[in-house]
Write a structure and sequence with these properties.
4 strands, golgi apparatus, mainly alpha, calcium, EF_hand_dom, 315 residues, globular, sarcoplasmic reticulum, glycoprotein
Length: 315
C-alpha cells in the first residue's frame, strides 16, 4: 500500500469511526499509569519493576539469574546518571522512568526516521519530510478521495517549524520527536491546543461552544436520545470546562481540558525508590546502593520463583 492509499484508508476509517453514534472520542492527554499491578511492596516489587523498566522490558529480567540482573542493572544506572557524577538523583531517576514508560514513542521515531532522513545525514529537513510524506499525492491537484492533502501539509509545516527550535527547517532527532509527538513537550503544547481547536471549532470563531464540543465526540446520526455519558459531558462543559461561564471555551480553557496537570506518578515513584535504597540517607543513590537493592528495581529468576511460591501458598 503506497502513502496515498494509506491516507485514503485512514480518512475513510476516521469518517466511519466518527459516524458511530455511541463511540466516544477522547481528546485528553493523560500521563499513563506506570503499571497495571497493585503497588504493594509487602507482596511483591512487580509495580516497581514495571515503573523502572517498562512492563515489557521488566519481563525480560525475570528470565535472568540474580548475577545477570545485577550486571544489567549496573549498566542501566550508568545511563541514568546523566551528569556522570557517580550519583543518581530523584530528578535523574524521574527522567529515566518517564523514558522507560514512553519507550514506544522513541521506537516509533526510529522507524519513521529511517523513512524520512533521505540523505542519511542524521537530520531530517522539512523538504525531506515533505517529499517523503506528500511527494506522490501533491502531484495530483484533484485527488479522487477529495481529501485536502495540501491543507494537511500546511498544518504539518507549521508544526515542524514549531518543533524546530533554531529555525533552520532542519530537525534533529529530538526536534523530530517533538514534531511527531508534540503532546510530550512543554514548548509544543500551544500547537496541540491550536490544532485541537481548529478541528472542533466548526464556525471558525476561535472558540469551542457546547454543540461543537459535543459534536466532536458524539454523532447523533438521526437519534434524538443521547446516551448518559453525553448528558454528563454537557454538564461537564457547563460546570468545569467553561470556567468563565461565557458559553464557550477559549484557548486557555481548552488547554486545561486536553492537557490537564496530572499527578506526577514518575516523580512519586522516583522518590519512593530513592527512599527505599538510600542507605546513608544523603538523598541520592550510588550504583552500589542501587545494585544492593536490585530486587526493588528489577526482577530475576530468584524473585520470580519467590513470587511464584507466594502465589502457590496463597492458593
Amino acid at each position: 500500500m503506497d502513502l496515498r492509499q494509506f491516507l485514503m484508508c485512514l480518512s475513510l476509517c476516521t469518517a466511519f469511526a466518527l459516524s458511530k453514534p455511541t463511540e466516544r472520542k477522547d481528546r485528553v492527554h493523560h500521563e499513563p499509569q506506570l503499571s497495571d499491578k497493585v503497588h504493594n511492596d509487602a507482596q511483591s516489587f512487580d509495580y516497581d519493576h514495571d515503573a523502572f523498566l517498562g512492563a515489557e522490558e521488566a519481563k525480560t529480567f525475570d528470565q535472568l539469574t540474580p548475577e545477570e540482573s545485577k550486571e544489567r542493572l549496573g549498566k542501566i544506572v550508568s545511563k541514568i546518571d546523566g551528569d556522570k557524577d557517580g550519583f543518581v538523583t530523584v530528578d535523574e531517576l524521574k527522567d529515566w522512568i518517564k523514558f522507560a514508560q514512553k519507550r514506544w514513542i522513541y521506537e516509533d521515531v526510529e522507524r519513521q526516521w529511517k523513512g524520512h532522513d533521505l540523505n542519511e545525514d542524521g537530520l531530517v529537513s522539512w523538504e525531506e519530510y515533505k517529499n517523503a510524506t506528500y511527494g506522490y499525492v501533491l502531484d495530483d491537484p484533484d485527488p479522487d478521495d477529495g481529501f485536502n492533502y495540501k491543507q494537511m501539509m500546511v498544518r504539518d509545516e507549521r508544526r515542524f517549524k514549531m518543533a524546530d527550535k533554531d529555525g533552520d527547517l532542519i530537525a534533529t532527532k529530538e526536534e523530530f520527536t517533538a514534531f511527531l509527538h508534540p503532546e510530550e513537550y512543554d514548548y509544543m503544547k500551544d500547537i496541540v491546543v491550536q490544532e485541537t481547536m481548529e478541528d472542533i471549532d466548526k464556525n471558525a470563531d476561535g472558540f469551542i461552544d457546547l454543540e461543537e464540543y459535543i459534536g466532536d465526540m458524539y454523532s447523533h446520526d438521526g437519534n434524538t436520545d443521547e446516551p448518559e455519558w453525553v448528558k454528563t459531558e454537557r454538564e461537564q462543559f457547563v460546570e468545569f470546562r467553561d470556567k468563565n461561564r461565557d458559553g464557550k471555551m477559549d484557548k486557555e480553557e481548552t488547554k486545561d481540558w486536553i492537557l490537564p496537570s496530572d499527578y506526577d506518578h514518575a516523580e512519586a515513584e522516583a522518590r519512593h525508590l530513592v527512599y527505599e535504597s538510600d542507605q546513608n540517607k544523603d538523598g541520592k543513590l550510588t550504583k552500589e546502593e542501587i545494585v544492593d537493592k536490585y530486587d526493588l528495581f528489577v526482577g530475576s529468576q530468584a524473585t520470580d520463583f519467590g513470587e511464584a511460591l507466594v502465589r502457590h501458598d496463597e492458593f
